[in-house]
Amino acid sequence: MWTFRLPILQSTSPATLVATKLQQLLGERLSDYTYVDFCAGAGGPTPFIEQELNKRLGLSKPDSLPQAKAATPRANGLAHPNDSVDFILTDIAPHLPAWQAASTESAHLHYIPKSVDASAAPTDLLSLASSSHPTPSPPHQTKKIFRLFNLAFHHFPDPLATRILHNTLNTSSGFAIFELQARTLSSFLTITLMWPLLLLITPFYFWRSPGHLFFTYLVPVIPFVLVFDGYVSSLRTRTAEEVLRLADAEDGHSHGGGAGEGWEFKSGDEWHTWPIGEMGWLVAVKQSG
Length: 289
Hints:
The chain is built from 9 helices and 8 strands. By secondary structure, it is α/β, with parallel strands linked by helices. The longest helix is centred in the C-terminal third of the chain and has 16 residues, at 221-236. Helix 3 links the parallel strand 2 and strand 3 (109-111). The protein has helices spanning 14-26, 46-56, 96-103, 158-171, 185-192, 194-205, 210-218, 221-236, 240-251, and strands at 33-37, 87-89, 109-111, 144-150, 174-179, 259-260, 263-273, 277-286. It has an 8-stranded mixed sheet with strand order 3-2-1-4-5-8-7-6, with helices on both faces.
């Protein structure tokens, strides 16, 4: 879903859209952070976001990344805006085979081989990173941590989501939540249209898989599960205002109006599928400390 692009209906894949949004919002600060994907699952869009951002920074060949220049401090002590960016995959249930395979493709994609609880993340997170690349480029220990939640935050019930936000605000310098669905009529309609769309595209992508064809057409388990899961995910997805209220419930301060306790909050929606599919995003950056 993240890396798939439908001709005509999608100008770019959702993963590329995430990379674009991070670059737009962070600007020259993009290279100041190491990006840690909490709840990475089997990898999700993060490997593609990493390669897209490093390509835009002029590091288009993954095998050449270890030879990229080291972080060059700016006058304010932060990284140079053209430095490479590192990404780390984590999860409470690590998917090591998938992460190891993904990290062999880029020297700047890493993973933490042990369980990581997003509500109680270790303070030495960067030092725990591993890689299966033949010549890895270890994350810069002086860079700040930016947390990513890609199609994940809606999975957390309110008490857990509140603890995760509290831990994030206290142990990181930025975070972003990206969701491909919402509690809106347009989102439910987009998900509903996935069923006929699957019937249309399956022969082109899975014609060599008899099982896939059987469970799409004769016994339509695959479209049913995808659409049903989409409905449930939409119902569980919070608005940006609801996420900020959870943060308020934890630290006792108001984050309304876009800022609170030295943090800047921005949110919005971007079209990922014409004419009604939207990606919701919330990006927060710590302004001090």
